[in-house]
Amino acid sequence: MTVQIRLPRKVDAINADWIPARTLEWREDEAGLVFLLKEKSRSRWMKWLIRKAGKSQFFRIHLDRFGTAAWKLADGSRSIKEIATAMQAQFGEELADADVRLVRFFTMLAGSRFVVFARAGMDANVG
Q1: Which among 125, 121, 107 is positioned nearest to 9, based on CA atoms?
Q2: For residue range 75-85, what is the model confidence (pLDDT) as tens digits?
Q3: H helices of the chain, where?
Q4: pTM score, whole prediction
Q5: Are the C-beta atoms of residues 61 and 68 closer than 8 Å to each other?
Q6: Which of 39, 54, 56, 116 has its CA 20 to 30 A from that of 24?
Q7: What pLDDT, on a 0 to 100 scale, did the predictor assign at position 127?
Q8: Cβ–Cβ < 8 Å for 2, 85
Q9: How many CA atoms lie within 13 A of 44 on its CB side?
Q10: Which residue has better confidence, 100 or 36?
């Protein structure tokens, strides 16, 4: 049984056994790098105003090649440890301390509600 873990705004410690799952829409640019699409406003009035001004409804958050690889692997089925292992195999020594860097990366994403976490066998929400 997999239960979704809801985290508070400030995330102090994420366990590397947790499974990140994406919560935002995303696209790839011409270079194959991912950019996340964060809605500017949920308000109908603000959406109308943004549309009237001819602006995009979304902020674009561009990821580098390490972030792109991590984002693509965060599909809700792999733990942070498994993602780190896959990225270490892909990037080799270029990505030193992959597990530590990924915990920091996913902590930042969770703080902005771009990912949520699940943990197999858990029977209560955390946060």
Answers
A1: 107
A2: 999 999 999 99
A3: 44-52, 65-73, 80-91, 98-111
A4: 0.77
A5: no
A6: 54
A7: 37
A8: no
A9: 0
A10: 36
